[in-house]
Structures are given as structure tokens and as C-alpha cells.
Design a protein that fits this description.
globular, 8 helices, mainly alpha, 209 residues, 0% strand
Length: 209
């Protein structure tokens, strides 16, 4: 990545501010699309445009809908792999421990399975983000070109990538506290949700440039 994390955070924030506050009508439309089931695929596809260097403007809704649906499929496939691994290894280990008649063995294996599940889901989640960026830029198959995806992470730097995720999560977590404001918190979060998504999308677009 050619810019630092701080510069990326402020730059992507400015991008989101310019693109959404500069088109309030588009912002409102994204809010509406985001909260409607199935239709929200259009919003999801619109956010993907940021990865391609395009404005997050609601247009060409057919393509945006398909893109949003494909993101869901990609996420499902990525999470399916660790689920199968944990199911096979965990299930077999638990059965073996149970047949031993040792409660301690079952508890130990259960804890081990939970740790394994956490590690696998975390690893696949880390890979899934640049995979979706690659999909947005090059098409569905690019989401599974692991050589390219690991190359994207390597170029950004694994440490830089992980620190970026943590910092972004902390910032968004703090902002999320607004949702705890009585009566209007949910409305505030509903309004700013598209802003947060565009901010994050631009942040990752810069990270994996």
C-alpha cells in the first residue's frame, strides 16, 4: 500500500463524505435499499463499485443486484469450507472421545474444536475480504484465484492488513455506540450505515490497490 493507515483512514473518510454528502438523494436511496430484504442486493452491488474506482451511485440496478447476490454466494462458499472441516474433524473427534467414556476427554475435545473453528473462520474471513475486492475488479472467478489474493495481501503486508482491520473495527465499534442512544440510536445507525460501508470499501480499495 502506498499510503499509511492513518492517511488511508482519513482519505477514505473524506471520499465517503464527498460521494454521499455530495449526493444526498443517492444516500437516502442507499438507506432505503439497504433495509429491504432481497432488494438490498442492489445496495451491496452498488458498494462494490468503490472497489473498481467507480462512484457508489445507484444505477444499472440489474448488474448491481447480480453483483450483490454473487457476494453472498462467495461469502457462503468461503464460510462453507471451514464449516465442513470443523464438522468432519470435530465430529469425529467428539465421537471418539465420547466412546472412551471420559467426560474430561469430551470437554477437552470440545474446547479444541472451538479453538479450531475460531482459527479457521478467522483465516478464511481474512482471505475473503481481498477475494471480494478481486471479484469486484475482475469477475466471479477471481474470488477464488488464491495466488492473486495472497499476492494482494502480501503486497499490502500481512501485519499492515491485520492492524488495519483492528483499527477500523475499533473505530466502527466506537461509532456503533451511537446505536445505544435511547429512542433515536437505531435511526442514527440506519442513516450512517451507507457512509460506514462506503468508507470501509474505499479503505480496502486503497489497501489492496
Amino acid at each position: 500500500m502506498s499510503i499509511g493507515i492513518g492517511e488511508n483512514l482519513t482519505g477514505s473518510f473524506g471520499y465517503a463524505k464527498d460521494k454521499l454528502m455530495g449526493s444526498i438523494g443517492n444516500w437516502i436511496l442507499l438507506i432505503i435499499l439497504t433495509i429491504i430484504p432481497i432488494v438490498n442486493f442492489i445496495a451491496m452491488g452498488t458498494y462494490l463499485k468503490v472497489y473498481r474506482g467507480e462512484d457508489p451511485k445507484v444505477e444499472h440496478i440489474g448488474k448491481s443486484f447480480v453483483d450483490g447476490l454473487l457476494v453472498l454466494i462467495i461469502a457462503f462458499l468461503y464460510m462453507l469450507i471451514p464449516t465442513i472441516i470443523v464438522g468432519i474433524l470435530g465430529g469425529g473427534s467428539l465421537i471418539a472421545a465420547a466412546t472412551s467414556g471420559s467426560t474430561a476427554a469430551v470437554a477437552g475435545v470440545g474446547a479444541g474444536v472451538l479453538v479450531l473453528a475460531f482459527i479457521l473462520y478467522l483465516l478464511f474471513a481474512l482471505v475473503m475480504t481481498p477475494a471480494i475486492v478481486n471479484f469486484a475488479r475482475k469477475g466471479f472467478g477471481a474470488a477464488f484465484k488464491f495466488g492473486e489474493i495472497f499476492g494482494m495481501i502480501g503486497k499490502a503486508g500481512w501485519l499492515m492488513y491485520i492492524i488495519s482491520i483492528i483499527l477500523l473495527a475499533i473505530i466502527f465499534g466506537i461509532i456503533g455506540l451511537l446505536g445505544m442512544i435511547p429512542f433515536i440510536g437505531w435511526l442514527i445507525m440506519l442513516i450512517i450505515y451507507p457512509f460506514l460501508i462506503v468508507w470501509a470499501a474505499k479503505f480496502y480499495a486503497n489497501l489492496f490497490e
